[in-house]
Amino acid sequence: MTSGNAARMPGDVLLVGSMPFDDAETVFRETAKGLKGHLTAMPDGEVKERKNWVGMLPEYVFAFHPQLEETVSPGGGLEQPDLPEGVHLSELDAFWAFKIKAGEKLVFDNLLYADFAIDSYATFRRLRNEGVIEPGTRFQVSLPAPNSAIDAFFNDNSEWPEVHEAYLRGINHEIQRILEVVPANDLAIQFDMAWELVDLAMGEANYFAFWPRSNLEGKIERHAAQLNEIWKAVPEETLLGYHWCYGTWGGWPMTDMKDLSLCVRMSNEAVKRAGRRLDYVHMPVIKEPDDAFFAPLDDLKIGDTKVYLGVVHEKEASLEPFRRRMQGARKHLADFGIGGVCGYGRIDPRDLPEVLRVHTVCAEELAKL
Length: 369
Fold this sequence. Notes:
The protein is of the alpha/beta class and 369 residues long.
């Protein structure tokens, strides 16, 4: 990596975002204790209302929006399916869906993300001033990209262009509100793309029956198109990262992950379509990858954008599987940081200290290889 990139992204560990606690202060304290010296930026854990990730939007935003009406109700609320390992869902009907009311022009004037971030930043700054959080650590805000935020909850896809545009304007407004409180050079913005990668990984099949039919190239163009826009509200002084996510709804990954080709393709598209520096991308890695899994890394064309590979699988008896994954990746990418495959919001909070300890041990091992 170049010195400019190293200065902006010095941390060798990335936390994607979600953590299994009920308040941001616990997240910050546990993270600061468990990963001291390894993070560029620290997330607030996406606690409370955000535990279900984009599930927060129908529950707290769409259901109360005066310009939307519910078309499909989940009944008792969102329940994560309990699936055997290796079993994936496909061609589902909508489980919670909305439409724009007739004659309305949709505007999202409060998506709540700024409210959460501003509240968490006050705690973050206090703990950093007290020396709990290391000086120089940035505040990380993870946001759903438009297609992840919208595509599962609007089952009339003829409305998607209008809803996507409204969400993009809304999320830009959220970022602007955050920047009124959080200095641009103290902030990291990460866009999470899960439904996008799940859709791509299914090829010509669909996760939801109401998604538009397309071949892989058509899907890539549809999901990459949002990369032309989502960076525009993020100032140059703020770190910008993308998390290519295979999801944990019903278990990780939500669909088969044969190799890193989709993550590489989307990373190349992201850098090509951004009108500013893309500071990092995160790519998950399966437990037992072969050389073919990592080979697409040879095709990366992302300049000095830092890559974090999700090579940490915390429930392993030894470091040997981690070493094998790192050595396999090193054949195709000389320099990278590490992380888990996704966030940790759905694990038992009692397991989190051990998860962070494993990240630290793996980071120390990374430095030796």
